[in-house]
Amino acid sequence: MNRNTLLNLTKKYDSPLYVYDAGKIISQYNTITGAFSKVKNVKINYAAKSLSNINILKLLNQQKSGLDTVSIQEVKLGLLAGFTPKDIIYTPNGVSLKEIEDVAKLGVQINIDNLSILEQFGQKHPTIPVCIRINPHIMAGGNSNISVGHIDSKFGISIHQVPHIKRVVENTNMNINGIHMHTGSDILDIDTFIRASDILFDVAKQFDDIDFIDFGSGFKVPYKEGDISTDIDELGKQLSKRFNEFCKEYGKDLTLMFEPGKFLVSEAGYFLAKVNVVKQTTSTVFAGIDSGFNHLIRPMMYNSYHQIENISNPKGRPRYYSIVGYICETDTFGSNRRISEISEGDILCFKNAGAYCFSMASNYNSRFRPAEVLILDNKDYLIRKRETFEDILRNQEICI
């Protein structure tokens, strides 16, 4: 996005500020659907948890996307955004049977990832279609916190427990209409993904009347210039061939599903923050900004990399800085980064700020969460107001 545009937005809406490019989101959606164009039935379910602003949901609904949700609240957001129940899949982890039953009443696709809940739900609601989340026991992902398909993961039912799944299904006569997996995020190796999909095909063969197979997501996006990412076109070529062959073997045209979040919105997002102070110490030059991990926690939580540019002085002499926040704990966004010379008052731009950034923001240190702006058809729209002190106090009950 143009630097002048971003600078003007900070003048208009102040900082810190999240900005999203609708055109990039649409382009990414078209890229993934195009990669699997040789499959008859393809459904892309956007992972709402990555960026759940209702305007983003409405934008993707307009593209005919489905919605992947992990809570009843996300389901209700999706319905409010215009998604039909049949276009929403609900894949919770560790929630109560009651929440799953409440979601089932809304008519969305249920996805269950543990034997206990599967048996309880099957006994009470054998006619409601259920998808099963399988743990393929494959380690994949860019960080241990986002690798969810390995043997020690809390997610999914082990492939070694498929006989137990079948016993529950036979005893309850429940309706299994889909098989699902998600191995992790930031997957680069296509062979790893194909290996996991082959495991999923083997599981799917053991159920007689499924309608879809959900391969999760986790595609890696580039985080810096020259960075490598998942080759979606090559994955599409290899997996489409295998999927079509499986459908012939199964005797039915199934739907191929994915649930991308980061792939669709990461590169569309920009986080803008103002430099409060430039501080020289005996070993480091710190640039302290008007934000912290209360607004962008990924570098601290996942050791994630966000490219940082000084858009106020893009042609300045490059120097080395550690970019830090204003939280009363260590909140370092980047150490010893080579950035155009920074002065107090400059605006820094953090790239790849669309996924798991605002959605993980908090009011830690009693700070306000920032505003969000959407660029759509070359116009800027405020899609979330900056919080105020009244928002901090809202729902607090004073009893003293």
TrEMBL record:
Homodimer. It is an enzyme of class 4 (lyase). The gene is lysA. This is Diaminopimelate decarboxylase. The active site is at C328. It comes from Tenacibaculum todarodis. Substrate binds at R298, Y302, E329, Y356. It comes from the Bacteria. Keywords: Amino-acid biosynthesis, Decarboxylase, Lyase, Lysine biosynthesis, Pyridoxal phosphate. Its EC number is 4.1.1.20. It catalyses: meso-2,6-diaminopimelate + H(+) = L-lysine + CO2. Pyridoxal 5'-phosphate binds at G218, Y356. Specifically catalyzes the decarboxylation of meso-diaminopimelate (meso-DAP) to L-lysine.
